[in-house]
């Protein structure tokens, strides 16, 4: 409301606030606390045995309070401004988990519950959206403004980043890479059992075909492959490339393929990044 030129933010004040990023899976909770540039300051991991919403969110609330108390003890002048949470689910408005198949949740008001448990503002985002956000800020996005993220594991996911923005819509979280797209002989990359060398090679070729098909429609500068099944692709890069070549035009340029070790702490950092943008009111943070 002051007269004169509007203020233009040049950098984030790292002493102004901290954020908590939380990744919820069917196996564990991974929580981190970051500064305003998403630099990780502390972390906690907790295995889950009871997947009922009340039980999971209660444990999540305890983990958030534990991180907040630890931060307060070290730096009492640095407040927690909010919490970003990612879940493999279809999210409504950054507040409600409409459907989370791996957790068997339906219509859970997760943000409301966590806010009551912690007293902090909470944003819920789709897990793959948060992974793409982390890649956008700290990974492939440092050199590429247009790239795709493909996850292979217990599920198969896809995210698109264009002009430095993670693309989302009302379909985000439904799992749009269906069995019809993968094919009937899609390999089990969940990690439930180890794969033989021959099975891993076949899996890499199958994933390569999927990546090549996705690249044909999106023309990415880079392709990030992550998820529980990414470890089966390491060492099978030639088969991965062969699968891509099966569907790409012979004259098409090579793809910059980046394999990522499966790390939910990195996903949690993406959730914290989304929360930072949400708290600051910058960018186009999709609450999905």
Detail the topology: elements first, then pairings.
Blueprint (H helix, E strand, L loop, with lengths): L17 E7 L3 E7 L5 E8 L5 H22 L5 E8 L2 E3 L3 E5 L4 E4 L1 H9 L3 E5 H12 L8 E6 L3 E7 L2 E2 L12 H4 L14 H22 L3 E5 L10 H11 L9 E3 L4 H17 L8
Parallel strand pairs: 1-4, 4-8, 9-12, 12-13
Antiparallel strand pairs: 1-2, 2-3, 5-6, 6-7, 9-10, 10-11
Helix pairs in contact: 1-2, 3-7, 5-6
Describe the structure.
By secondary structure, the chain is of the alpha/beta class. The strands form 3 sheets. It has a 5-stranded mixed sheet. A 5-stranded mixed sheet has the order 11-10-9-12-13, sandwiched between helices. A hairpin with a 3-residue loop joins strand 9 and strand 10. The longest helix is centred in the N-terminal third of the chain and has 22 residues. The two termini are 32 Å apart.
Helix content: 25-40%
* Mean pLDDT metric: 91
How many E strands? 13
Q: What is the terminal separation in angstroms?
A: 32 Å
N-to-C order of helices and strands = EEEHEEEEHEHEEEHHEHEH
Strand content: 15-25%
Low-pLDDT windows of residues: none
- Biggest sheet, open or closed, and with what strands and sense? 5 strands, mixed
Number of helices: 7
State the secondary-structure class: alpha/beta
Gross geometry? globular
Widest β-sheet, arrangement of strands: 3-2-1-4-8
C-alpha Rg (nearest Å)? 20 Å
In short:
This protein is of the alpha/beta class. The protein has helices spanning 53-74, 110-118, 127-138, 179-182, 197-218, 237-247, 264-280, and strands at residues 18-24, 28-34, 40-47, 80-87, 90-92, 96-100, 105-108, 122-126, 147-152, 156-162, 165-166, 222-226, 257-259.
